[in-house]
Amino acid sequence: MSDLRIVNVTADLADRCAALESLCFPLADPDYLVKAADVRTYARKFPQGFFVMLDGDRVVAQAAGLLVNFDFDHPQHTVLDICGADGSLPAHRDDGEWYYGTDIAVLPEFRGRGLGKQLYDLRKDLVRRLGLRGIVAGSHIEGFAHHKHAMTAEEYVERVVRGELRDPTLSFQLANGFRALGVLRGYIIEPEIDSCAALIVWDNVVSTP
Which of 62, 72, 166, 204 is the most buried (most CB within 10 A)? Predict the structure, then answer.
């Protein structure tokens, strides 16, 4: 990984970050993906929460996030509730207690090299430095597409948590200390997975009094 450079997002990276998103999620509704306008808003509002990995000038991986005050008593939400349809990031609060991971993407040819774990470690380090309660995110349950005719999304997530099934994203997140709290319906328009995601949380136990 020594040839890769990690930076916080800047406005001049907007087009390249948006292009990476399209390459990594070709089946998702483009309206629900990170666009250049979104990236420029991250760069203005909370650049330290958006990590970019560069191979020379090429963006090969990224992890975006913002600060929120999350209501666990009413957890159902969509990507657009958090990010907005116009790149405004309406859920961001400068005094938010949680880091909300809005996006993580790694070019297919760079997968399997530990970049995803490195990005999650950067997020955790940021949460610790800021004294936040932890990380919240919607997990892209890609593997559900192969099981949705045999079980509900809730059953799928439960079986992944128990280790009976393996999901490319959720299993990785569970192995990195996240908990699955349920299913988010209509989270992102992607018919292959019935537009579902798993609600996941990583607790920053150091910040707990």
Answer: 62
pTM (two decimals)? 0.93
Task: Report the number of distinct structural domains present in the chain.
Answer: 1
Look up the CATH number of the domain holding residue 124: 3.40.630.30
The pLDDT tens digits of the residues spanning 121-168 come to: 999 999 999 999 999 999 999 999 999 999 999 999 999 999 999 999
What residues contact residue 145 under an 8 Å CB cut-off, 6+ apart?
Answer: 192, 193
Token digits for 67?
Answer: 């600060």
Average pLDDT of every residue of the chain = 93
Tokens for 91? 């859920």
Residue range of the domain that includes 112: 4-207
Exposure pattern of 49-87 as b/e (b: 16+ CB <10 Å)? bbbbbbeeeebbbbbbbbbbebeeeeeebbbbebbbeeb
Pairing of strands 134-139, 58-68: unpaired
